[in-house]
Design a protein that fits this description.
Layout (H helix, E strand, L loop, with lengths): L1 E6 L19 H13 L5 E4 L5 E3 L1 H10 L4 E7 L3 H13 L3 H4 L11 H6 L10 H4 L4 E6 L2 E6 L1
Parallel strand pairs: 2-4
Antiparallel strand pairs: 1-4, 2-3, 5-6
Helix pairs in contact: 1-2
Length: 151
């Protein structure tokens, strides 16, 4: 893993970033800000040197720059093509930290996972696609929601 210190002018927000743009006062924003103030900047922004885009860490960037006044940030550097960058962005933005996942309510409903699996005619991915984040699609499963992203 390569880590660099970059001036904030070299770090671009990804225009396609799917996450809701949190604002000061939003509970999630304030929780993240309090965490950074308490523990420091421990989870680095992921930055793609080919495009200059942030692949993960848009909210941390906003807090570090707008709230805490940083003019330079340490970033974890990746070298990805456009498709790989978008796939990694989705993986980074929709991954639910384990401690947060434990707080999600579980409700009974009539969702039948076996029926949903049986309805799949042909897989859209092949062995190894997830591990390398390369392929035609990327699938996110969160409790009952199955989403496939195509690029």
């Amino acid at each position: 893993m390569e880590i660099r210190a970059l001036p904030i002018e070299q770090i671009n927000a990804a225009a396609y970033n799917p996450r809701v743009d949190l604002q000061p006062g939003d509970p999630e924003y304030e929780k993240l800000k309090a965490s950074i103030e308490s523990f420091g900047y421990v989870e680095l922004i992921v930055w793609n040197e080919r495009t200059g885009n942030m692949v993960g860490g848009h909210q941390r960037y906003k807090i570090m720059v707008n709230e805490l006044g940083h003019t330079e940030l340490a970033v974890s550097v990746v070298d990805l093509d456009d498709q790989q960058e978008k796939l990694l962005n989705l993986a980074a933005e929709f991954a639910v930290p384990q401690d947060e996942a434990l707080d999600l309510p579980v409700t009974d409903d009539d969702f039948d996972i076996q029926r949903a699996l049986d309805e799949i005619k042909e897989p859209e991915t092949r062995r190894g696609d997830y591990g390398s984040l390369v392929g035609i699609g990327w699938c996110v499963v969160t409790r009952r929601i199955l989403m496939t992203y195509h690029f």
